[in-house]
Amino acid sequence: MYECDAALGEHYTYRFSAEFDSQVAAYRAAESLKVAGIPLEQIRVVRPTDPGMAHEVEPQVQGVAWVLVKKHVMLGLLGLMVGLAIAAMLVTIGLAVVRSSPMMTFIALGFTYPLVAVLLAGAVTLRPDHGLLIEKTRTTADSDCWGVVAHCSTRGQRQLAKITLDRCLQAL
After folding, report:
1. Alpha carbon separation from 166 to 18, 36, 81 (Å, rounded)
2. Which of 122, 126, 130, 146 could form a disulfide with 26 if both were Cys (CB 3.0 to 4.6 A apart)?
3. Residue 94 DSSP symbol
4. What span, in angstroms and rounded, lies between the C-alpha atoms of 126 and 128?
5. SS3 assignment, position 148
6. How far apart are CA 5 and CA 146, in angstroms?
7. Is the pLDDT of residue 105 over 70?
8. 4 with 125: CB under 8 angstroms?
9. Integer Cα distance of 134 and 167 in angstroms
10. Cα distance between residue 38 and residue 48, in whole Å
C-alpha cells in the first residue's frame, strides 16, 4: 500500500493505492472502501495494462496545472518583494559596494530573488509524492496485477481508506 499527500489546491488531497493479485480481490477492496463510507466516484480500480491508467490515478489534471501556475506566480512575486526589500535595506545602510551603484543593486536583487523563488516553486510542484504513486500503480498494472486507488478529500476519509485497505491486504 502506498500513501500520497498532494499539494494544496486540489479537491482530493490524499491518495492511497494498493496492489491485488486478482480482479476479485481488487473489486472486493473497492467495495470495502464504498461500504466504509468513501464515495464510489473517489475509488478507482486499475486493471492490468489499463490504457486509461493515468486518468485513474490523476483525475485532476486541470487542478495540477492551476496549482503549478499559482505557486510560480505567488513565489515569484514574493521573491521580487524580498529582493527589493533587501536592496532597499542595503541602500539605506549605505555599504560602499551599494553606494557606488544603488540602481544596479535593485536590478540584481530584484532579478535574483524572484528567479530563486520560481526555481523553488518548480521543486515544490514537481510532485515527487505523485510520481511514486503513479510509478507504483504503473508497475502494478504492468505486472498483471490489479490496483485500487482511493482519492480522499478529508482527513477522516484518509484514515478510513488507510484502515480499510490495510484490512483488505491483511485478509489476503
Report:
1. 9, 13, 47
2. 146
3. T
4. 6
5. strand
6. 22
7. yes
8. no
9. 22
10. 23
Helix/strand/coil (H, E, C) string of 16-79? EEEEECCHHHHHHHHHHHHHHCCCHHHEEEECCCCCCHHHHHCCCHHHHHHHHHHHHHHHHHHH
- Measured distance CA(129)–CA(3) in Å, rounded: 8
Distance, CA of 15 to CA of 21 (rounded, Å): 20
Q: Are strands 146-152 and 2-5 parallel, antiparallel or unpaired?
A: unpaired
Give the whole-angstrom CA distance, residue 137 versus residue 146: 9
> Rounded to whole angstroms, how far apart are CA atoms 58 and 153?
14
At 90, list the grid cell. Answer: 542595503
What cell was used for 113? 530573488
Half-sphere exposure of 105 (CA within 13 A, CB side): 19
Q: Are 137 and 48 in contact (CB under 8 A)?
A: no
Q: What is the pTM of this model?
A: 0.63
Pull the grid cell for residue 139: 508497475
Q: In 10 A of CB 137, how many CB atoms?
A: 27
Q: Over the stretch 128-146, which tens digit does the pLDDT of each residue have?
A: 666 777 777 777 777 788 8
Average pLDDT, the chain: 81
**CB burial string 34-55: b at 16+ within 10 A, e below:** eeeebeeebbbbbbeebeebee
